[in-house]
Write a structure and sequence with these properties.
Layout (H helix, E strand, L loop, with lengths): L9 H48 L11 H7 L4 H16 L4 H17 L1 H7 L16 H9 L1 H14 L1 H16 L1
Length: 182
């Protein structure tokens, strides 16, 4: 009986382990590169937002004989939706609704969603009258035309009537009830 000892070649095993380590190292460096590129990209987009906003606000596009801002943006092959999303974000940053760091951290799409969701609306509510508009139908076309043309006056009259002339209001309610009953 003859026993033969196989020669162990550990070099393949060591090479495989070092190959895996190299792959992991390469993968980690690529991930870091990707993060850096994304940060550069978002900073470039923020800068683009600011540039577009300044050009639009100051109407600099007219210096190159563009009639509208949209004509200007087409020349640079920017999608209309993208341009107006950028302008919306730039306005939100300027108004203090969102911060640049929020935009960098969450990205453009999440920032736009934030502007549309309840928190974004709650911030903007201060500019909007919380009282819902009153809707009613008038029987006379002339009175409709008059009140439609003078909506603020109509609002003032109704508000004053309610606050200061409740006796008149009660009289009108009685007259209305009498008309309704007959």
């Amino acid at each position: 009986m003859r026993i033969e000892i196989n020669k162990r070649d550990l070099s393949n095993l060591v090479a495989k382990e070092s190959s895996i380590e190299q792959k992991i190292s390469r993968y980690n460096s690529l991930k870091e590169k990707l993060k850096v590129n994304f940060k550069k990209e978002i900073h470039n987009k923020i800068e683009t937002m600011k540039v577009l906003k300044e050009i639009k606000d100051n109407e600099y596009y007219k210096l190159d004989n563009y009639r509208t801002f949209e004509d200007f943006s087409k020349e640079y092959r920017l999608a209309r939706t993208q341009v107006y999303q950028y302008l919306r974000l730039a306005n939100a940053i300027e108004e203090g609704i969102i911060e640049e760091n929020f935009l960098i951290k969450n990205g453009i799409n999440d920032s736009l969603i934030f502007l549309k969701d309840k928190q974004g609306k709650r911030i903007k509510k201060s500019k909007i009258n919380p009282i819902k508009p009153l809707r009613f139908q008038l029987k006379n076309q002339d009175s409709y035309d008059y009140y439609k043309k003078n909506a603020k006056l109509t609002s003032f009259i109704l508000d004053e009537l309610f606050r200061d002339k409740k006796d008149w209001l009660e009289e009108f309610v009685k007259r209305f009830q009498n008309l309704k009953n007959t």
